[in-house]
Amino acid sequence: MTTARFDEVIHAPIRLQICGLAAATEMIEFGVLRNLLGITDSALSKHLAVLEQAGYVRLNKAMSSSRIRTWVLLTHQGRRAFEGHVAALHAIAAGQPVTNAGRPGR
Amino acid sequence: MTPDATNRRQAAAGLADLAARRDSLADHVPATRLRETIILATVVGAGLALGALHNTAVNVIALPAVFYALARLTGAGQWQRAGIVPRRPPGFVAAVQGTALILAAPAGLMTAYVLDDRGIGWALPVGAVVVPLLAVAARRGINKLRRAGLRR
């Protein structure tokens, strides 16, 4: 069973969406992620940098059809943190106390 | 800390948004190219039909082409073109799917050839149509399962 754990790094709405989309896939391409989220390249890069620094995502560059594509992968640590955060959101929505709830994200 | 009404509302909204985004993820389909599928299915059909000639030289060229085309038809590797690679099914499920795909097409081909050898003339033409169709159906089925996995 997943332990509810509020995570300030993931809590920012865009980062929550990034983790949610990455968690549903083995890996997702940068351009697809950007289009699904409706944000700019630079904004997505910034959020990915924060997640990468926390060890939650890994970025892989691969050559495809003579251009470099960046793939975003959620790490094991990132998946655990995301599942814990979602469990915390469910608990909050249900009005249950969450002991480690923190200040909304950066 | 017990969440207040605002926190509860925000958490619920965040979860709803997350679910909606995941649904939109499943709208992505592997960029299967119809032209490619038609060419590969034609290669399989033509290869099987050439096999009916029972000419060793022709078979040496035609049968590897048939197996290559079938492998491409049944492969689910097109997902990378869509920019999304769905999560792999659990090991056992993946093994069963893989084994079924690897065994089904050659088994269908062998049956067609055996029946042809026994004088049932329609076996190869029917096999030439049915085997590629089954391969395409299997590929579509696996892609459907993997798309369903994107919603979870």
Structure explained in plain terms:
The complex is a heterodimer of chains A (106) and B (152). In chain A, strands 1-3-2 form a three-stranded antiparallel β-sheet. Chain A has a single domain, classed as Winged helix-like DNA-binding domain superfamily/Winged helix DNA-binding domain (Arc Repressor Mutant, subunit A). Chain A is an alpha+beta fold and 106 residues long. Chain B has one domain. The mean pLDDT of chain B is 77. The chains are: A alpha+beta (106), B mainly alpha (152). At the A-B interface, α2, β1, α3 and α5 of A face α1, β1 and α6 of B.
Overall number of strands of chain B: 1
Helix/strand order of chain B, N-terminal first: HHHHEHH
Q: Which word captures the global form of chain A?
A: elongated
| Percentage beta strand of chain B | under 5%
Poorly predicted parts of chain A: 101-106
What is the CATH homologous superfamily assignment of chain A? Winged helix-like DNA-binding domain superfamily/Winged helix DNA-binding domain
Structurally, how many domains make up the residues of chain B?
1
The helicity of chain B comes to over 70%
Largest sheet of chain B: none
Helix content of chain A: 40-55%
Q: What is the CA–CA distance across the termini of chain B?
A: 30 Å
Q: Provide the CATH topology of chain A.
A: Arc Repressor Mutant, subunit A
Q: Name the helix and strand elements of chain A from N-terminus to C-terminus, one letter apiece.
A: HHEHHEEH
What does the radius of gyration of chain A come to?
14 Å
Largest sheet data of chain A: 3 strands, antiparallel
Q: Report the sheet-strand fraction of chain A.
A: 15-25%
Mean pLDDT level of chain B: 77
Q: Which structural class matches the secondary elements of chain B?
A: mainly alpha
Number of helices, counting only DSSP H or I runs of 4 residues or more of chain B: 6
Strand order of the largest sheet of chain A: 1-3-2
